[in-house]
Amino acid sequence: MAAARTGLRAWLGKREDDAGLVLFRVLFGLLAAGAALRFVAKGWVEALLGAPPVHLPWVRGLETPSNTLLYLLFAAQVLGGLLVATGRATRAGLGLWLAAFVYVELLDKTLYLNHYVFLTLVGATLLTLPWGPGGRFAGGAPRWARALLQLEVGLVWLWAGLAKLNADWLLRGWPLAAWLPRHGDLPLIGPLLEAPATALAMSWAGAAYDLLIPALLLWPRSRATGLALVVVFHAAVGLLFPIGVFPWVMIASATLFLRPDWPRRLAAHLGQLRPAPALDHAAPLSAPATAALLGIAALLSLWPGRHLLLGWDAAWAERGHRFAWRVMLIEKGGMVELRVVDKATGKVRVERPRDQLRPWQEAQVRTQPDLIRDYALLLADQAKLGGAEVAVYADAWASLNGRPAQRQLRPDLDLTRPEAELWAEGWVLPLGGRWPGDPD
């Protein structure tokens, strides 16, 4: 056991050619800057952040800044990304980008996207690396750096594949059965996308891809095949579904599985020889650093499966759905009305999310229990401004992956109560269950 620990520490501490990590840094910086520019160019800064009268932030009380400050935050993301890409101030650029990016993402929970979390995670990891002048590594890159990034990328695919091992995906072809026919007007492939068998076949292919691609990229003999599949798969997904920069992020991330000196080898193949770095064969990673690294690896590996350990239904209740790489699994429709009861007078009024929220916000709120509760807390805060203490109850119905609509939340629980109490009382009704008095 002691020999194994020593061997692991030596392996993690060994230095390797930094060319691959340097190129990944460049790609990450360009993607970070490009994503911010795209957000601005599409007019989303004002439309999604500046214009809505209310937001549902991740941190209660977090205020949305003025449009001027919002644009400055996106300018900071662009500047930070370019600093990272050029290597002129790598650590400062990562810190600037990360601070601005995370602040913007905290402003509204309804704008959550998995790849924003992934970018945040990778950006934070890059920030911890021992960058030297010019965005390089003195004496070569520590092997643990690339290994940690490979783990983070591989877990996205692995957990995405494991999450697809369910009856809806494998036996019913949902939610692709609902999404693919929307592209029936595409030339040549449109009629094929409308066929139910296509949704089922693509569901199986998608699960197999996610589960196998980390192994294909890790094994040298299959690495070229794996890289080709990454490019083809994510290009196709980007064509069919509006998921922003995610396909490019995953294609860039796949390069982390190539040999660490692959850019140098490619340059040599093109006749542009570049000298290899002098590796200093660093000492084994310290025991505390190794323990910390293994702890981080364990947390990253297990956290996406927390719903399995605790018995949560992540697809229906959506507890454990976020930050878990559960990609493209849910097609939900729903409606919700909230009864706001004045505790002093007993007066009741009915509120609907569409009364205050923009359509994209309302589309998320009406199907996600925690967002329904967030909106209930917003209504309670607004009532307090008028001097009233209220309780808020929900009449919430939802349909998951083509099933008949059913009541989603217990209508008798005050949603302003602490969240732990609501979960303890089973505030989210089970999928397929019913509330006494509701129609069959």
Summed over residues and divided by their number, the pLDDT gives a mean of 92
- Spans of 5+ residues with little confidence (pLDDT < 50)? none
SS content category:
alpha+beta
| C-alpha termini separation | 60 Å
Biggest pleated-sheet summary: 4 strands, antiparallel
Strand percentage, roughly? Answer: 5-15%
The tally of domains stands at: 2
Task: Tell me, briefly, the overall form.
Answer: globular
Radius of gyration: 24 Å
Query: Helical percent range?
Result: 40-55%
The succession of helices and strands, N to C, reads: HEHHHHHEHHHHHHHHHHEEHHEEH
Q: Give the count of helical stretches.
A: 19
Can you describe this structure?
- The chain has 440 residues and is an alpha+beta fold.
- The chain folds into two domains: 2-310, no CATH class; 332-424, no CATH class.
- It is 54% helix and 7% strand.
- The protein contains 19 helices and six strands.
- The chain has helices spanning 2-13, 19-41, 44-50, 67-86, 90-105, 114-128, 143-163, 167-172, 176-179, 190-194, 196-218, 223-240, 246-254, 262-269, 287-302, 306-310, 359-365, 369-385, 419-424; strands spanning 15-16, 141-142, 332-342, 348-351, 390-400, 406-407.
- A hairpin with a 5-residue loop joins strand 3 and strand 4.
- Helix 3 (44-50) crosses helix 4 (67-86), helix 4 (67-86) packs antiparallel against helix 5 and helix 5 runs antiparallel to helix 6.
- The chain starts with a helix and ends in a 16-residue tail after the last helix.
